[in-house]
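Model it.
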Amino acid sequence: MNVSYSLCLLAGGQARRMGGGDKGEIDVGGKTLITSLIERYAPAPYMMLNANGDASRFSHYGLDIIADILPDYQGPLAGIYTALSHIKTHRPQDDYVAILPTDAPLLPDTLIQDMITAAQSHDAPLVSVKSHGRRHPVIGLWSLSVFEALEKAVCEEGVRKIDAFTTPLGCHYISYDDDPDPFLNLNRPDDVTAYRNARGEEG
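Modeled.
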């Protein structure tokens, strides 16, 4: 069965724990985290970046930059809603939207295909991941079939937590127990330093 999907890279947060700025612009191994993700998942038929503020700061990536529909930085679920809304309008032929954060440098190369396979095998409208017993709800594959329910949840019911929306719909989780954790997030300056040191980089 042919599956059509798009990829949205989430960069719409304020990175408070990092002291502000754009975490996706962190340089690791001579390239930014966003560049690394673009290169790794280049087979995606369509790729966009969810980011707020001045979109021109990301123009060099050559992606469509989509700002949150909802105001005031309401969290990753707002970014996911924005992504699905954009795809429903501009690529209604798609079956899924894959959502990946821009602050996770170790995501598996096969991640999107793994999620698509799981969605098809389990007839699941939502697929996410967990590692070492911990869920990572920001990472996921979303069927366009949930758009209306998501719009009602975020716009009418004020739902802001991803799990609060996905759990009742029967989200399927794929487990990865690799070491180091493939879903490591660089949330604080110390995380970046530790990651660079582990790679043998300076700075």
